[in-house]
Amino acid sequence: MNYSTTTTSASRLAAACIIVGIYESGDPGKAAADLDDATDGAIRDLYRRGDISGQLGDARLLLSLPTVRAPRVVVVGLGKRDRFGISAFRQAVAAAMAALKGSKTQDIVNYLSLEDVRDSSPYYLARYTVETIGTALYDFSEMKSSRKNKPLPLKKIGIALKSPGERRAATQGAEHADAIVAAMNLARDLGNLPANVCTPTYLARTAQRLARDIAGLRTQVIGEAQMQRLGMNALLSVTSGTVEPAKLIVMHYKGAAKKAPIVLVGKGITFDTGGISLKPGPGMDEMKYDMCGAAAVMATMSAIATLALPVNVIAIVPACENLPGSTATRPGDIVKSMSGQTIEILNTDAEGRLVLCDAITYARRFKPSLIVDVATLTGACVIALGHHLTAIMSNDDKLADSLAEAGIKADDRGWHMPLGEDFDRQLKSNFADFANVGGREGGAVTAACFLGRFTAGMSWAHLDIAGTAWRSGSKKGSTGRPVPMLTEFVLQQAGILS
């Protein structure tokens, strides 16, 4: 995709399509007001007749407005002027893209970036524009025998600027967004693939392909024999019921000298039946998404390397299946983790924390500056935060606040949830150092407390993305979250953004 910026007025720009807005009050936005003047009040007339609306997200495609050089104009409702913030901006851009569905538009210029968007800047408005359009263009049809829906043949995205002085920041925003969109598409593709295709081996090969294709990336794949020598018995207990071999994927990016690395750990359960603690049948197909943490950290590594950021990052992905079988781990079994701590497995469906704890222990050898694990870990998180916010839990409030702030900036929001001894005590076991579950109450927090037992001396945060990694229902599919949050966080850590 190509990107450009412009300070040319909307009425004079010869793009294939321009996006302008009108507020709920009937007041045209800045570019729409220019069109209104150029067309002797046509925009206001259309509003008065009810042919266009200022309702947020209501978009109408207008063709061949007289004296306007662009043959297509999408007029989108912006809602209330005093509430026009980041979320409304992105909703308006997404609505404009929906209005263009089925057209042959090859280049679009977004003039909504001229509006006064609360808590934003030229950099972020350009980035939100490209990310939102990229998300709208995404289509997963790889497994279909034919493609009935032809995607928009878009080749160029333009961002309108208030002044030439904004060009540098907006260009940087578009470039960063391009890498984020590509990473999100990778994460969404991996999530949407069925489990008979996207196996642990497939994830490992994808990581190896990324290392071949993107300069600066290096991938190492560790098999079960080496895991056994390392003492990763918690991880191996999860994969014991399946014939698919587990993989520990380690991706390295070195963009700075003599800096302790950031380590990202992603849960890679490519299908989760719950094991012997079998899940209910309805909705079990969605357990192919239990590797979305892995997809997110692998995709984030691709964005970091593409942007050649001056930072060192390592991604660790414990990848395996969790299936029942004659050799599967049983409730009540006790295993010794790589850390030497023993775990009573009361519920084999609490498997994500078992693979993550060994991966976190493995991460210690890299002496990281900080570690962030990303996992579709608990249904309790969905009950707590719905499908809107990623849960953030940490032993370091400063790290948690940095991730939450990155989520706000990236419009990929999280919520800082508590940890504490009261929750941790729920993991008590009569037979091992602790159990892998602590009861239904506070389940998302007790899961994080379990992981916290492996992070002594480290600055660590846990992102539970069970509610945000995918959508169900008629729009079922991977979202690509939290790639924007993670990439924003690394950009901040690298000193690229202040």
Feature tags:
elongated, 15 helices, 498 residues, nine-stranded mixed β-sheet, 20 strands, alpha/beta, six-stranded mixed β-sheet
Note down, in words, how this protein is organized:
The chain has about 500 residues and is an alpha/beta fold. It has 15 helices and 20 strands. The chain has helices spanning about 30-40, 40-50, 85-100, 120-135, 165-190, 200-215, 225-230, 235-240, 290-305, 350-365, 380-385, 395-410, 420-425, 445-450, 485-495; strands at about 1-5, 15-20, 60-65, 70-75, 105-110, 155-160, 215-220, 245-255, 260-265, 270, 310-320, 335, 340-345, 370-375, 390-395, 415, 435, 460-465, 470, 475-480. The strands form four sheets. Strands 7, 8, 9, 10, 11, 14, 15, 16 and 18 form a nine-stranded mixed sheet that branches. It has a six-stranded mixed sheet with strand order 1-6-5-2-4-3. It has a three-stranded mixed sheet with strand order 12-13-17, covered by helices on one side. α9 links the parallel β10 (about 270) and β11. It is elongated and about 80 Å long. The two termini are about 25 Å apart. The mean pLDDT is about 95.
Record field, number of beta strands: 20
Low-pLDDT segments, ≥5 res: none
Amount of helix: 25-40%
Q: What overall geometry do the principal axes of the alpha carbons give?
A: elongated
Distance between the termini: 27 Å
Total of helices: 15
Backbone CA Rg: 24 Å
- β-strand percent reads 15-25%
**Main pleated sheet:** 9 strands, mixed
Q: Overall pLDDT, averaged? A: 97
Structural class determined from secondary elements: alpha/beta
